[in-house]
Amino acid sequence: MAALLRLAGAGAAPRRASLPAAVATAVVLAAAVVFPLAEGGNAPVMGLATEALIYGLVTLSLNLLMGYGGQVSIGHGGLLAVGAYTTAILASRYGLPFIVVLVAAGLATGLTGLLLGLPAGRLRSHYLAVATLGFGVAVPQIALNLGGLTGGFTGIIVPPESLGGISLGSPVPLYYLALVVLALSAAAIRSLLTSPTGRRFMAVRDSEDTAPTMGINTGRTKVVLFTASSFFTGLAGCLFALNNGIVEPDSFTFSLSLFFFAAVIVGGLASMWGSLLGAALLVVVQQESSSLGGFSETILGAAVVLVLLLVPGGLAALPRRVYRLATRGRGRGAGAAASSPPGAASPLPGLESPHLGPASPPSGPASPPSGPASPPSGPASPAGAPGEG
Question: Cys-Cys crosslink for 247: which of 14, 58, 88, 284, Cβ 3.0 to 4.6 Å?
Fold first, then answer.
């Protein structure tokens, strides 16, 4: 796990916004908005696209924790379950408005992250990973044992919700809802990262030992980080419940937490677009390999290894890697064109100065010394000898 994080960390350098990045963002958003115009009548495709947006939001929240905060978590599947069960319980038993249910799912999951972050804030590296792993494994078991609240093995059927008179039971409105929630969450995370709180996150990530010397309370920073990441995961859990139509323990197995962890690594640490690309790629791979039964997880793992071998920094580092290879090739071509033809004598370094002109060659061979050096006439008199003036 540590090796994977170091390998993917090649793409974790801070990135400054640029005009090409803004143009690319606008193009991707425009494509996402018009996508239902082409595939709106295909319910399975729209469901898969909505799932990619939901998983992208979970991966983005996990990357906030891992890429920008340096904290490892393998339990975000459990946090997603908290948000989904909160949605299912409030929607099926209390009939609350959807906006209230969405906010409640985020707050309930954020509170869970707060409680998880209090003890986890004292842990590091693999100890923290094991603690979150235990949480992710425990949540489905808790849901099984609390049958009166969670429905036990059968789960809870989520009734169709509506927002402003628009039914969210149809694939296209739910897709647009997931897109809006993802865009707003990404903007909020971006704003958080550029604030002093975000700089504290990255200071703890860069060096947890030296952060206190800058006046940063590392324990409190970790708790805030866990809470923020859990809140956005809870929003994704609400959308997950609506998209699936039922919330049951089998939907939140340990492999789901591993899926989100792999999506962060494949997309690239500390990259928001990398999180979305990694989640979308793995959703497609998982869907295409689902018909192969037990080989689905093997193919998913092989895809992760293949991406890391080809692009060590994740998909976020792919444009820089392609640009580096292209400029290296042009540099070699320019160097070969500028080199002197075969057989031509190349000047030695230092024989020519840009200011003084070419150095004049020697007029002839150097003359040998005229003879042996004459020996000293006598021993040197010691300083201060008698008779010296």
Answer: 88
The verdict on residue 71 lying in a domain is yes
233 lies in a domain? yes
Report which secondary-structure segment, H or E, holds 125.
helix 125-145
158 located within any domain: yes
pLDDT (mean) for 243-253? 95
**pLDDT over 50 (residue 22):** yes
How far is CA 55 from each of CA 113, 239, 262, 352, rounded to the nearest angstrom?
18, 10, 12, 63
Domain count within the chain: 1
Give the structural domain span for 28: 20-253
**Integer Rg of the chain from CA:** 32
- Whether residue 389 is predicted with pLDDT greater than 50 in this model: the reply is no
In this prediction, residues 320-346 reach a mean pLDDT of: 62
Q: Token pair of 240, please?
A: 């997950």
| Length of the chain, in residues | 389
The pTM score is 0.80
Cα angle for residues 75, 242, 32 (degrees, 5° grid): 90
pLDDT at 388: 42
Contact 55, 283 (CB under 8 A): yes
Examine residue 229 and state whether it is found in any structural domain, yes or no: yes
